[in-house]
Write a structure and sequence with these properties.
CATH superfamily of the largest domain: Lactate dehydrogenase/glycoside hydrolase, family 4, C-terminal
Keywords: NAD, Oxidoreductase, Tricarboxylic acid cycle
CATH class of the largest domain: Alpha Beta
Radius of gyration: 19 Å
CATH architecture of the largest domain: Alpha-Beta Complex
Organism: Streptomyces virginiae
Number of strands: 14
Largest sheet: 6 strands, parallel
Number of helices: 11
Function: Catalyzes the reversible oxidation of malate to oxaloacetate.
InterPro entries: L-lactate/malate_DH, Lactate/malate_DH_C, Lactate/malate_DH_N, Lactate_DH/Glyco_Ohase_4_C, Malate_DH_AS, Malate_DH_type2, NAD(P)-bd_dom_sf
Strand order of the largest sheet: 3-2-1-4-5-6
Protein name: Malate dehydrogenase
Bound molecules: 1,4-dihydronicotinamide adenine dinucleotide
Number of domains: 2
Length: 328
């Protein structure tokens, strides 16, 4: 039998945590033959609810679940972690300035990065879900100098999946026929969902759509503002779809992208496509053997360039702000 993989989940008592943990335990994160040990990290106020979720996980009698431990100390929560899903974050509350939001999240992601640096397993892979995800990932990465920077990633897979779904609805294609979609930039309203290189059943998606007005005025804003539309409809922010995207992100990273396809991940830039080195920005990536690579050589047209640059500009400003706060 295989040794269990240690998976740390922060914010385990939150709504994404509740949608995520059962799928990890049932084998969807890593594979149907990979046993997992869950390490749940919460703040003291969340411990009791996390214990309740752990009771329910026990009650599922998942064959792959080799154990559950719950902590309110990051140094313990990340001990031996092979995969870490950083979900818990400080949400923006009414009247909160961006600086306050970044400072509050710095207070979470800096110590978590330090704990990962000191205690995680050598093969640690980190996905940051908690918002502002890209910059929180940057803060954690900067606090973990002994961990290769590329192990810190931010989630734009929900945006990627949303874009595929919108494109399928527009064209009548099956989602499984859509490939090579890209989310560029920040997981925020400035993100750029790019269909110019996407394919629908082997044909160029932009040519199949053939509707620049829909692209600019409907598709892009619908994908970028989908989070707000979900809150408006559900009275709560995306949870199951966010958890699903986190599962997809890690599963693809570990198990690879399909031949001829790629995915979108927020990753430290190596300078590709004019994105300043070190910014955690979303790119088209292929994954193989537990590693990812940026898809190179794509032709970026004027329409795309403007939008990528605007989102990357926002990321640069967020980086400047956390630098000023002494968080990186
Ligand atoms: P939630 O408020 O239901 O749960 C958050 C949980 O995190 C709470 O149980 C809280 O006690 C815990 N927490 C807070 N600080 C913590 C810390 N320092 N250590 C450990 N746990 C801590 O929030 P929800 O709905 O689960 O969302 C979590 C985050 O995910 C939010 O920041 C949200 O904006 C973000 N999100 C990101 C998406 C993406 O596409 N990247 C999509 C949807 C949500």
């Amino acid at each position: 039998t295989r040794t269990p993989v240690n998976v740390t989940v922060t914010g385990a008592a939150g709504q994404i945590g509740y949608a995520l943990l059962f799928r990890i335990a049932s084998g969807h994160l890593l594979g149907a033959d990979v046993p997992v040990k869950l390490r749940l990290l919460e703040i003291p106020q969340g411990m009791k609810a996390a214990e309740g979720t752990a009771m329910e996980l026990d009650d599922c009698a998942f064959p792959l679940l080799a154990g559950i431990d719950i902590f309110d100390d990051p140094n313990k929560g990340f001990e031996g972690a092979n995969v870490a899903l950083l979900v818990g974050a400080r949400p923006r509350t009414k009247g909160m300035e961006r600086g306050d939001l970044l400072a509050a999240n710095g207070g979470i992601f800096k110590p978590q990065g330090q704990a990962i640096n000191a205690h995680a397993a050598d093969d640690i892979k980190v996905l940051v879900v908690g918002n502002p995800a890209n910059t929180n990932a940057l803060i954690a990465q900067a606090a973990a100098p002994d961990v290769p920077a590329e192990r810190f990633t931010a989630m734009t897979r929900l945006d990627h999946n949303r874009a595929i779904s919108q494109l399928a609805a527009k064209t009548g294609a099956a989602v499984s026929d859509i490939k090579r979609l890209t989310i560029w930039g920040n997981h925020s309203a400035t993100q750029y969902p790019d269909i110019f290189h996407a394919e629908i059943a082997g044909k160029n998606a932009a040519e199949v759509v053939n509707d620049q007005v829909w692209l600019a005025d409907t598709f892009i804003p619908t994908v970028a503002k989908r989070g707000a539309a979900i809150i408006e409809a559900r009275g709560a922010s995306s949870a199951a779809s966010a958890a699903n995207a986190a599962i997809d992100h890690v599963h693809t990273w570990v198990n690879g992208t399909a031949e001829g396809d790629w995915t979108s991940m927020g990753i430290p830039s190596d300078g590709s496509y004019g994105v300043p080195e070190g910014l955690i920005s979303s790119f088209p990536v292929t994954c193989k053997d537990g590693k990812y690579e940026i898809v190179q050589g794509l032709d970026v047209n004027e329409f795309s360039r403007t939008r990528i640059d605007a989102s990357v500009q926002e990321l640069s400003e967020e980086r400047d702000a956390v630098r000023e706060l002494g968080l990186i």
